[in-house]
Amino acid sequence: MGETLLPAIGVEILIPACAVVAIAFSLVQWHLVSRVKLSPHGLDSAATDGGAGKNGHAEYLIEEEEGLTDHNVVLKCADIQSAIAEGATSFLFTEYKYVGIFMVAFAVLTFLFLGSVEGFSTSSQTCTYDPTKLCKPALATAIFSTISFLLGAFTSVASGFLGMKIATYANARTTLEARKGVGKAFITAFRSGAVMGFLLAANGLLVLYIAINLFKLYYGDDWEGLFESITGYGLGGSSMALFGRVGGGIYTKAADVGADLVGKVERNIPEDDPRNPAVIADNVGDNVGDIAGMGSDLFGSYAESSCAALVVASISSFGINHDFTAMLYPLIVSSVGILVCLITTLFATDFFEIKDVKEIEPALKRQLIISTMLMTVGVALVSWIALPPSFTIFNFGSQKVVKNWQLSLCVAVGLWAGLIIGFVTEYYTSNAYSPVQDVADSCRTGAATNVIFGLALGYKSVIIPIFAIAVCIYVSFSFAAMYGIAMAALGMLSTIATGLAIDAYGPISDNAGGIAEMAGMNHRIRERTDALDAAGNTTAAIGKGFAIGSAALVSLALFGAFVSRAGISTVDVLSPKVIIGLLVGAMLPYWFSAMTMKSVGSAALKMVEEVRRQFNSIPGLMEGTAKPDYATCVKISTDASIKEMIPPGALVMLTPLIVGILFGVETLSGVLAGSLVSGVQIAISASNTGGAWDNAKKYIEAGASEHARTLGPKGSDPHKAAVIGDTIGDPLKDTSGPSLNILIKLMAVESLVFAPFFATHGGLLFKI
């Protein structure tokens, strides 16, 4: 089988070193962002260095005209920023209080279920995959699975919270930099996104690596038990992500729909107008939904794909021969991904200069292309030094011989499939291409045709991503069975730091535009922030495409690990036990989407009524002489999201437990397959439909082309039709769509964690 070129000590240095480098790099980026001062004293020095440098610094002559020396504007921006930060922090603390109770309850449940597999016995048991050996007791798996669940949950919460803190720190700074030019504002927003991306990638990697080494002290040579208990890490990460995505999504969209419907359609005032009572809640929502929720979500994907790969590797030749270097190949790929993303980030912040609005989107797309190309080389190199030339991979009961170049190709296929999904998503959601322009054009005849065109676009946008995922699955399974699929998912997520930087950039730019409007800044500044935001909308859709594609692969890899662990030799689609599972599983994404959409609808209803009430009852509000009551709107969003996130969360968390206990592992395997197949389609179409409607509205508002000007200006009938499409798309793209990828992953990882219990005690109804 051969030895690896990289010794075990090399791995023990490489992985933590890459994580530390990522943390150091994010701190440097944060320091550079913090040099933009939010006080009038700091501003004088910022103005004086405006004569030189890159990315818009040279626009010194415009600075007087743009009000760079106007101290009132700076103070207003600082006030608005602190209101947004306060709202976001208080919401997340409230959310985490409820989620914390759930976390403890579920940890107890995990311990009881897994401990009862062998009747809480403390004596060693025969190993599942090698009956000739003795493994650690089931009680140990229960204890360590519970610990890793809590670790994953805590890391997920920390990822979301840190992201929110960074975004609320950077939003007003981006607004102030927009006065010096679009390039300067772009760099501030992008650096802030990079802080979040690198911190999250480093945290996920470091915590997992430390957990493996600490658990190894107890497990010793029992790697099967060690990596089975590590799967709790993925379960913890994704269960927190579910509540973060659903809760944050309901919050942000209730505020957004309420603000848009009353403000833009009924009262004809601009977006983010300070007279609109829901405007602060809307900007808070961008941070708790799009930033905190997304951070937890991508961390969950990363944790689960790593866990799926490690579980399969532990029962392959890596685990059997105790080859530590090859065993940690998934973590080594992620470590190299951090270094690749670091180099890629410099292309956006240091190597290229943005002088014009038209250069923003290409700069962000360049990030994806550069990181993918560099990572392809990195993966080939890592596979050569960290894997033996030939090894075996567990394949449903047998061992499949695999060469190191084949595994390298599995990762590369996932990486490039991610890029294809990203570009297809961009084609369907960017207003630079014909699909979104056609949707905008359909607004001529009202909201109904806009909705019809938007839905058709969403359904059509599913075709190529599904083919990309299908090819990826076939190639990676042919080369390295289920381990290949897990590594393809990790390949897609290997450039997570760059993906997150691009993703977080969008909501930061959106907030920056809102702050510019509320602070009453020059219309040219609002045009710059709108250009940043429109590019951010497209990149957010690309980010969601990555998340959904990787979720499909992760879910399939976890499904394979579950089937192996539960002792199912084949999943027979003709068996009635499996077919009922398939039907119910395919229905679950619809049930889940119905719950989340209805939650946004009912919360938005309360918000619309409150905004109308304030406009009608506060004298001088429309004239701008009286201040609206922002706090009430923030409270409506907070209360609604906390209350409404529990039923969808319970549906996802309880389904595998109920099906596994009552109907057994065969029916549960059907449920997992059904939810994967239907969930991916709905998630892609929902995200892209919503993204297209949003950018169709922005296309009309910007009026950048002759065609767009015939549909505008703001307040025209086509514009109002576009706003209605945008508000329908809001819960689709920011609540239901992104939450569905967590549904398919979470059910699969939960089934894997509880597989020993279901295999021993499950299927009660069929035993009667």
Automatic annotation (TrEMBL):
Keywords: Ion transport, Magnesium, Membrane, Translocase, Transmembrane, Transmembrane helix, Transport. One of its GO terms (cellular component) is membrane. Pfam families: H_PPase (PF03030). The keyword Iron does not apply. One of its GO terms (molecular function) is diphosphate hydrolysis-driven proton transmembrane transporter activity. It comes from the Eukaryota. The chain crosses the membrane at residues 6-28, 98-117, 137-164, 185-212, 299-320, 327-348, 368-387, 407-428, 462-486, 546-568, 574-592. It is an enzyme of class 7 (translocase). It is a multi-pass membrane protein. It is found in: Endomembrane system. InterPro entries: PPase-energised_H-pump. This is H(+)-exporting diphosphatase. It comes from Carya illinoinensis.
